[in-house]
Amino acid sequence: MSETNNIGLGDGQTGDQPKGAVMRVASQYVKDLSFENPNAPISMQQAQEKPEIQLEVNLGARPMGDDFPMGKDFFEVEMSISARATNRDTKDLLYVVETNYAGLFLIQNVAEHQMGAALLVEGPRLLFPFARQVIAEAVRGGGFTPLMLEPLDFAGMYRAQLEQRASQLKAAGQNSDGSEPPAGQA
C-alpha cells in the first residue's frame, strides 16, 4: 500500500513546502521482534487486565544514498518500541516485547529545513499503527491480553529533541546550527 502526504509538523499544516512535496511509503517491515515471558507459567496466573507498562520509544532515520538501487530520494525511518509489563501489586515481570519497525519512504521536493519533521514526525506517524499491531499480536500470542498502545505525540517528541539539542549547543557555546557565536555574545 502506498500513501502520499503533504509534509508538515503533524498538525495538518504544510508550511512553506515547495509545490509537489511528496512523501510516499514504498514499503514497511519488521526488522526485529522479540517477546519474552521469563516467568511462565507463573506469570500467566498473575496476569492482569491492566498491567503496569513501561514504554520506551526511539526513532531514527537515514538516507539510503546515491547507490541505493531504487534511487537517491529514499529514506529509511525506524522506530524501536520496547514495552515491559509488570504486575501492579507484586511488581513481578510479566513480559517484555520489543520491535524495530521500519519503513522505506520516497521523499521529493521537501525543503531541507523540513526534512527532520518529515522523517521523525510524519514517517513514524504513518508507521505507528502497523508497529502497534505487531506488538499487540506478539503479546496476544504470548498468552496475554493484547497490548494496545495509545497514539504517540511524535511532533512533541521531535520538538523535545530539538530543544534538547539547542540546550546542549548553547551549553557548549555554539549556535543552534553548530557555529560559534560572534565574540562577546556567548
From TrEMBL:
Gene Ontology terms describing biological process: protein folding; protein tetramerization; protein transport
One annotated Gene Ontology cellular component of this protein: cytoplasm
Keyword Ribosomal protein on entry: no
Location (main, coarse): cytoplasm
Molecular function terms from GO: unfolded protein binding
Pfam families noted in UniProt: SecB (PF02556)
Keyword list, A-Z: Chaperone, Cytoplasm, Protein transport, Translocation, Transport
Record SUPFAM superfamilies: SecB-like (SSF54611)
Subcellular location(s) per record: Cytoplasm
Entry function: One of the proteins required for the normal export of preproteins out of the cell cytoplasm. It is a molecular chaperone that binds to a subset of precursor proteins, maintaining them in a translocation-competent state. It also specifically binds to its receptor SecA.
Subunit structure as annotated in this protein's UniProt entry: Homotetramer, a dimer of dimers. One homotetramer interacts with 1 SecA dimer.
Annotated family: Belongs to the SecB family.
PANTHER family (alphabetical): PROTEIN-EXPORT PROTEIN SECB, PTHR36918
Protein name according to UniProt: Protein-export protein SecB
The gene coding this protein: secB
